[in-house]
From TrEMBL, chains A, B:
Gene3D superfamilies in UniProt: 3.40.1190.20
Domain Carbohydrate kinase PfkB: start-end pairs: 11-270
Species: Pendulispora brunnea
GO MF term list: kinase activity
PROSITE patterns linked to this entry: PFKB_KINASES_2
InterPro entries: Carboh/pur_kinase_PfkB_CS (IPR002173), PfkB_dom (IPR011611), Ribokinase-like (IPR029056)
Signal peptide interval: none
Protein name (Swiss-Prot/TrEMBL): PfkB family carbohydrate kinase
Lineage of origin: Bacteria, Pseudomonadati, Myxococcota, Myxococcia, Myxococcales
UniProt cross-references to SUPFAM superfamilies, sorted A to Z: Ribokinase-like
Superkingdom of the source species: Bacteria
Keywords linked to the UniProt accession: Kinase, Transferase
Amino acid sequence: MAFDTLEMPYGTFEYVVGGAATFSSIAASLLTHGVRIVGVVGDDFPRDYLDFLRKREIDTLGVEQVAGKSFFWRGRYSADLASRETLDTQLNVFANFQPKIPEAHRSTPYVLLGNIHPQLQLDVLDQVEKPKLVAADTMNFWISGESATLNKLLARTDLLIINDEEARQLSGIDNIVRAAADIRKRGPSRVIIKRGEFGSLLFDEAGTFFCPGYPLEEVRDPTGAGDTFAGGLLGYVTRHGDTSPSTLRRAMFYGSALASFCVEDVGTTRIAKVTRSELDARIQAFARLVDYGGSLALPAEESR
Amino acid sequence: MAFDTLEMPYGTFEYVVGGAATFSSIAASLLTHGVRIVGVVGDDFPRDYLDFLRKREIDTLGVEQVAGKSFFWRGRYSADLASRETLDTQLNVFANFQPKIPEAHRSTPYVLLGNIHPQLQLDVLDQVEKPKLVAADTMNFWISGESATLNKLLARTDLLIINDEEARQLSGIDNIVRAAADIRKRGPSRVIIKRGEFGSLLFDEAGTFFCPGYPLEEVRDPTGAGDTFAGGLLGYVTRHGDTSPSTLRRAMFYGSALASFCVEDVGTTRIAKVTRSELDARIQAFARLVDYGGSLALPAEESR
């Protein structure tokens, strides 16, 4: 949970509420009741925002509020929003964060480990009891700097959700298909590789599955889209109550649909306002986007 | 029809047979009988290659062989094969090419206009009688240098097949969805925007459709993949004998499947060897790639 200052091509937005737990829990709460988050905020974090999360039935018992400033990130996006550079990162209260899972939350069945130090991700896993699915994110910083700890995490992860550059870095393999196969040997039986607006690929025991990004007429801010995707995916899995290949495939559509809302406005502005009927409509549009109208079997050639 | 010298990261391949008509006709010939091509070659073009095309029932009556050298292109690919630079282009016999459609071919119902000067594309259209579908390709060179002629062509085109950069340049609009809407106002009721390995988007009266690229473990040479896609698509449409939205959608899968073979080896090496059973198997793999196992409707939440 964090503040982001976003330098967009069309203007700068100061101290916008962000963070993986925020985006992913809002997305999941559209699909399932009783989402639980773990995190830390400073005394500068708006009480109203925590109230807003609770009104969505997001359980904030695991959110510590401590003296000091919340995590802060400042970034600048390129003109086409396809890339960004980090201008400032202040860990603040996050520097000494030790995630504590409340007793009442230890039996949480579906666990999403956001992108933090892999040792903290392992500490969370040590506090939960036999989850049905452990999904995890990570980033270039931990891949290069904490590979031994990250390998321990991978051995305990069921579903790794990373982007294509991270997959290449983690495996040392340029080709995405072979990179995913390599990563699956290290622990996660399922790997999802995100490619931004170009969609995402799932590699699991049933084979390879592709879910497109939803083509939008306007994108305002990609921040949090990946966390929204992961939160929506886990929300759908939790609602469905199983982790079968077909459930995961449909869950990717929900994650992708929610991510497509997320990028329509700055920070959590849009995702916080999405209604169930808006989501249903976009899911229907998504179904049309991939509907090829029946069988792909080759018709007999007409005589001409 | 051309010779390409390809400087790949793993070696240089001199005077490989290429050209849009070559790739697209080979792809189409896997799906329909009696593909007809129009083009020009020099006296250096291998007779064996023309014989090979004829053995595939590709009608080469419209291929002129004239004194001089065939069109030649030399390019160098980047290490990841994602981009290339042109090192040399020699028009040779192509410089004075005037496409002539043989009398027996003037009633061809499905027409694919490869990427040449838009005036030559118009000259071809003037020689065919009421085709059921006119599909066209173009490139940055004509978009910037021959916009008036290109606009005339667009007015007579039913299906424009271009890549994302060309769509942006043609429309002056960065966003792909809005770029496609703009282009559709200029003539083509259907626009397909290709995004290389990331798949392709169709915009037509039925809405928006997405067809992924097939994830491959190894890509050797992207040259001709776009032409193979277009040829496979037109071949499927010809076989099916209609141009409905659902036919076009399924046709994109065939185009994409054939393009995925094309890139597996240098030039036409791989696409020339693809068998119907290999194509069927890849189409089945494609169907699994996008199969989300039923309805996307949201299940009722289990009580927990």
